[in-house]
Each structure stands twice: as structure tokens, then as C-alpha cells.
Amino acid sequence: MAALFRLFTIVIFLLLTACTGKEPLYQEQGYVFGTLVEISIYGEDEIRAKQAVKTVMHEFQRLHEMLHAWQPSELSELNATFAKGESMAISAELVAILQDAGRLSRQSQGLFNPAIGGLVQLWGFHADDFKPVQPDEKDIALWVAANPQMSDISIVHGRTQSKNKFVQLDLGGYAKGYALDRAAGLLHQQGIHNALINIGGNVLALGQHGKRPWRVGIQHPRKSGALATLDLHDGEAIGTSGDYQRYFMLGSVRYCHLINPHSGYPMQGVQAVTILTHGTHAGTLSDAASKPLFIAGMHGWRAAATQMGLTEAMLIDGQGIIHLTAALQKRLEFADKNIRPVIEP
Questions:
Q1: Domain harbouring 109, CATH code
Q2: Rounded-to-integer distance, Cα 70 and Cα 169, Å
Q3: Of 2-11, 88-97, 183-192, which range is least confident?
Q4: Number of domains observed in the structure of the chain
Q5: pLDDT digit string (tens) for 93-103?
Q6: Cα angle at 204 between 203 and 207, to 5 degrees?
Q7: Is the pTM of this model over 0.70?
């Protein structure tokens, strides 16, 4: 899974029309989860909007400090406990997170697997800078044979342990989405109903931008600028997994942080996967559900989308060919009008 901090993910640009007056749009940026965070609020005075953003940013920092996979945190302490074969009392919030992440892992048939943090670390992605070094094949084989799974974790009355000492949690493929949903809840509590929350490319929309929906653009995985744009409606979220920000090169081979738990090696043959989600936990799903499609690859992504309950999804294969569902085709506007994507039923 993706490392929590400085997560790769696609950069999604806010495509807002130029303001020629005092449009009631408040925007603020920050840096948390190792990535750029941007919050836009429409239709509120600056003082009210600024206070709302402050509350959300504090929440993001709290989650950052709780869920860091390799710096001191509740999660890293739990990983150390697992490695010793011991149990640990954890917060009710972390219990709920692990239970939900476990449910999503089962739904994906293990392709979304936050328990393989040890493999992520082995490949050097538990760091801000990545060294272009391939791990020893025997070390990779050891982790694959150990087969750490979310189902190895048991939680009884708030105490957590793992029957498999190789379980090392990395919630990088879950935490940004969870934070989006937390932010939406906090904004609603403060009476904010029109906002756009962008955490390093995972974006959740509340309400709309004036009289129109929020419009975002999807970054091209191999070029600067947007590949396509779409309108996000109230309660919708978009998320992307890609091979182009958190990676290193060895010769002509690209090794990204998205690791196939079955092989122990970073996935290749896919440049990016983008999904559109809806509903109560749209943010969480936008983060976690893109990973199984990416790991399933060119031949399995459509079935993985069905397993995750997704109808609007896009995959860009290793040759840059765009494959997308008919439902998402209706929502996208490609920057290059000559693009002819392959439409999957």
C-alpha cells in the first residue's frame, strides 16, 4: 500500500474561473500527510471560512500524528507490538479504522492489503526520498510466504494483536480518504455546505461552487497539465492511484510504491487508475478502492471495480492507452479532443 506520508497520488487541479470581483470563495493551502492539502469554501465570509479551515487542518494534523507508519505514532507502536507477538490496547477510533480497512480488504480479495507495510518498507518507500535499490529476492520471498493479512489481526475489548508477526500496518492507501470524510463532517458541523477538500489529489465535494458544480482536472500521468476534467457534485469524491510520483528507476524499469501482495513486487503495466465514488464514505472509498484496480492490472481491473462496487472508473495502461467504463465516459471531458479511449462494458 501507499506510505501514509507524502503519498504519491495524482495531482488534481481546481479549475476555477477567474474572479473579477469579490467572489465569496475562500481558499487555504497547507502541508500535511506529506502532501499538499487545499480547502476551498464558497459563500461564507472570510472569518467564518478561516475558522472552519483551521478546525479541519488541526484534525488533519491529529490524524497525521496518529497514523504515521514509520515515525512515532499509535500505529507505529502497534506495529512494534505485532512484531513482538504481544497485544496492545488501542483507541476506539483506531479499532474502527482497522475494522473498516479489514472489511475493504476482504471485499477486494486481499488486493487492498494494509498489512504489507513490511514489504513497502523493504522496497524503501517508508522514507521521504527513495534509493533506487531492489531488495534481495530471498527477502521478498520471505514476506510473500509469510502472507500478512488484515484477517491475522484480532481485536477483543479494544486490545489488538496479530497471530502473524509479519503484519505491519501501512494505512497510506486509506488515511487520506478517511481524512476527507472527517473533514466533510467537521465542515457540516460548522454549517459549511459548499466546499472542496483536496488532499494530495483525493478530492471530495460538498455542495457546489456558486450556481455550478465544482470542476476538477485529472493530471496526465506522463505529461504536465490535466488529462481530463469533470464536475464533482455534492457528496462525490475522486481518487487516483498512479506510478508517477512515489517511485524510483533502475535502468529503464520503473518501481512504484504500489506493491502486489501476491508477488511482493511493485505493479507494472499500469500508469494510473482513477475512480469516482459517492455516498456517506465517498472519501474513504476514493482512496482505498482505487488500489485493487491498480493491482489487478490490465486484465483484472474491471472485475476488481465490480467487486468494489464501482461503476465509474478509468485505467491507463503501460502504453498510455485509456480504458474507462461507459458510466465515467459520460462525465469526463478530455483536454485532447483526439483521444479515443477504450470503453469497457
A1: 3.10.520.10
A2: 10
A3: 2-11
A4: 1
A5: 999 999 999 99
A6: 140
A7: yes
